[in-house]
Specification:
18% strand, Pyridoxal phosphate homeostasis protein, Ala_racemase_N, PLP-binding_barrel, PyrdxlP_homeostasis, binds pyridoxal-5'-phosphate, eight-stranded parallel β-sheet, 9 helices, TIM Barrel, pyridoxal phosphate
C-alpha cells in the first residue's frame, strides 16, 4: 500500500471513531483531500486509493493540476477552498465543482455570471468568520443570513452551506466551542428556510472536534499527503 493510501485509511478511521463518539452516522461526513502544494501524481495516488474530492487553495496551481488530470475529470470533484479575489473568479467558474470561500456578494455574482453554461451549477459554501478578527476572511455571523439569501437567489450557483476555519484552540473542548459557533449560524440559516446540507469544517489537527460540532465535510491535507 502506498503511504497516501495508508494515510487515507487512517483518516477514514479517525472519521469513523469521531462519528461513533458523537453518536453520528459515519456516512454523514465527507472527506475532502486538500492537495495544495502537492503534484498531480500525489492526487493520482489518492484517487487510486478511492479518493475523489480534492481541495485546492491557489487557483493557478489548481488549474495546472486539473488540466494534468483531465483523463480523470469525470471521476474527480474539485473544491476551491482558498481566499478568492475578483480577478480569479473566472478560473473557478470554469474549472471547479465547488467553492467554499465565498464571503461577499460581488464574488458570488461574478462566479454566477462566469459559470460555464454547459456545466452544472457551481456548488457554494459561504465562509463564516467565527473568531471576529477584523482582518480575517469570512462573513461575520450577523451578516450571514442576508448574504445567504442573496447568493441563493443567483442563477448558476447552488448554495450548499457554510465553511469555517477557526483559529487553532488549545484542546478538544475549546476547538469544539469555536466550531459550534459556525454550527449555530448553520442552524439559524436552515431555520430561516435555506436548504443547506454542508458544514465544511475540521482539518488534520481538529477534525474530531469539528465532527463533534456537526461538520459534514472535513478538509484534510497534512494527514493525507504529509507536511507542506
Ligand atoms: C490547507 C488547508 C486545509 C488543510 O489543512 P491541514 O492542516 O493540512 O489538514 C484545510 N482547509 C483550508 C482552507 C486550508 O487552507
Amino acid at each position: 500500500m502506498t503511504t497516501i493510501a495508508s494515510n487515507l485509511q487512517q483518516v477514514h478511521e479517525r472519521i469513523v471513531t469521531a462519528c461513533t463518539a458523537a453518536g453520528r452516522d459515519p456516512q454523514s461526513v465527507r472527506l475532502l483531500a486538500v492537495s495544495k502544494t502537492f503534484p498531480a501524481q500525489a492526487l493520482r495516488a489518492a484517487h487510486a486509493a478511492g479518493q475523489s474530492a480534492f481541495g485546492e487553495n491557489y487557483v493557478q496551481e489548481a488549474e495546472t493540476k486539473i488540466l494534468a488530470l483531465t483523463d480523470l475529470r469525470a471521476q474527480l470533484e474539485w473544491h476551491c477552498i482558498g481566499p478568492l479575489q475578483s480577478n480569479k473568479t473566472r478560473v473557478v467558474a470554469e474549472h471547479f465543482d465547488w467553492v467554499h470561500s465565498v464571503d461577499r456578494l460581488k464574488i458570488a455574482q461574478r462566479l454566477s455570471d462566469q459559470r460555464t453554461p454547459s456545466l452544472p451549477p457551481l456548488q457554494v459554501c459561504l465562509q463564516i468568520n467565527v473568531d471576529g478578527g477584523a482582518n480575517k476572511s469570512g462573513v461575520p455571523p450577523a451578516e450571514a443570513l442576508e448574504l445567504a439569501r442573496a447568493v441563493a437567489a443567483l442563477p448558476n450557483l447552488r448554495l450548499r452551506g457554510l465553511m469555517a476555519i477557526p483559529e487553532p484552540a488549545e484542546g478538544f473542548d475549546a476547538q469544539k466551542q469555536l466550531f459550534l459557533r459556525a454550527r449555530a449560524v448553520y442552524d439559524e440559516l436552515r431555520d430561516a428556510g435555506l436548504a443547506l446540507d454542508t458544514l465544511s469544517m475540521g482539518m488534520s489537527a481538529d477534525l474530531e472536534a469539528a465532527i463533534a460540532a456537526g461538520s459534514t465535510m472535513v478538509r484534510v491535507g497534512t494527514a493525507i499527503f504529509g507536511a507542506r
